[in-house]
Amino acid sequence: MIKLEMRKMLHTIAALTDLGNEINSSKDFDEVIRTSLHTCLGTLAIPKGAIARYSAKPRQLKIVAAKGLAGVVGQKIELGVDEVAKIAARTRPIKLTAERNGLAHFVRRNQEMFNKLRAHLAVPMIVQGELIGVIYLSEKLSGEAFSDDDLTIINTIARHIGLAFYNQRLIVSLKRRAEENRRLYKEMRQVYHDVVRAFGSAIDLKDAYTKGHSDRVARYSEAIAREMGLSGEELENIGVAGYLHDIGKITVDRAIINNPRPLTEREFKELNKHAVTGYEILANIRHPWQEIAYMTKCHHEKVDGTGYPQGLRGDEIPLGSRIVTLADSFDAMMTDRPYRVRLPLEKALNDVERNTNSQFDARVVTAFCRLLLKELNGASRERIIIPMIGLKFDRAQIVSQLEAIISQFEEISLAV
């Protein structure tokens, strides 16, 4: 069952990555839409489907791409004003064989066309509250009903394709504005991050003690990287590596992960495989995942060379991995685990200081301490670490502790 879930997860991530690459390619737009439809159908083993583009004048849906259906491209479906509004308001796919929610007349009126399309589901493509088009899907090849996970994936893909239509329309009309482009790009990146966060949450579900761990590690990692002056794709990739650093645990027995007793040597070996397994999962997906995959593989390496799985030292370990290592360890200290309760903040910082230059990179530790100090002093507009800790502590003592750590290691940080 675990292997099946892992394969499905890998297949879905790969499909969404391929779809994003296709939509952002410089290929002919009609070819992009046809390929996007094939990706959508292939992801969930759906044999037949079509994409219709909406135009307001006249109000109609025009089939622009199809697979497994002959003679449907160019066919049109007329829409009433109320029907456009009702479809645009839908947040879930419309089940055409059992529609009872305000669109029954629309379904009956176009039943002949839907039969020709072998349509079982109609998936509205909505961008900024506006109807862009509809994807029509037949039943799955297996005959199984669409699960909630299937519908979530379909909605995500529909949103991607809808954004492609929206962007193309802006290009054709020559009215694309820079701010609108940034907003659309941000929305597309948000979809990407929503998918990554969803997988991070799925990983955390295996561990009863670490709910939200992947999200916190990602946020800590991004904040530390930003404090170190990183930005753009490099910063984004480190955040994604934070979310997915434990993806290999999907293959580890839940009983080992949640074991309240000290692990046996065999159990340790099994648990420690997750770094390599995670790399193997992510490395099969094309750019930018190779870099992210290697970061996740190295998040248990130590700068003194005593970590695993490769025993890398210092700068042999990717900077992103060194950042995730500290974020991961700090969150582990700050949360209850099967083998101990969370540590007080001052003790956690003592552990960080003691393990600097052995487990942790001094530059990363210095940046982390600067970040935490800024949050305590109100010098940072964003508060990332303090709100997630959820502990009471002596502010003056922590400030003094942080200043001492920064003073101890800042020469190393400045020298690089």
Can you put this structure into words, describing what you see?
This protein has 416 residues and is of the alpha+beta class. It folds into 2 domains: 175 residues, GAF domain (Beta-Lactamase, 2-Layer Sandwich), CATH 3.30.450; 203 residues, Hypothetical protein af1432 (Orthogonal Bundle), CATH 1.10.3210. The chain is 57% helix and 8% strand. It contains 18 helices and 6 strands. The protein has a 6-stranded antiparallel β-sheet. Strand 2 and strand 3 form a beta hairpin. The chain is elongated and about 75 Å long. The two termini are 47 Å apart.
**Average predicted confidence as pLDDT:** 82
Cα end-to-end separation: 47 Å
Instruction: Give unreliable regions as ranges.
Output: none
**Relative strand content:** 5-15%
CATH architecture of the largest domain: Orthogonal Bundle
**Overall helicity:** 55-70%
CATH class of the largest domain: Mainly Alpha
**Biggest sheet, open or closed, and with what strands and sense?**
6 strands, antiparallel
- CATH homologous superfamily caption of the largest domain: Hypothetical protein af1432
Outline: elongated
The helix-and-strand class reads alpha+beta
| Number of self-contained structural domains | 2
How large, in whole angstroms, is the Cα Rg?
A: 25 Å
H-E string:
HHEEEHEHHEEHHHHHHHHHHHHH
Structure annotation, total helices: 18
Strand order of the largest sheet: 3-2-1-6-5-4
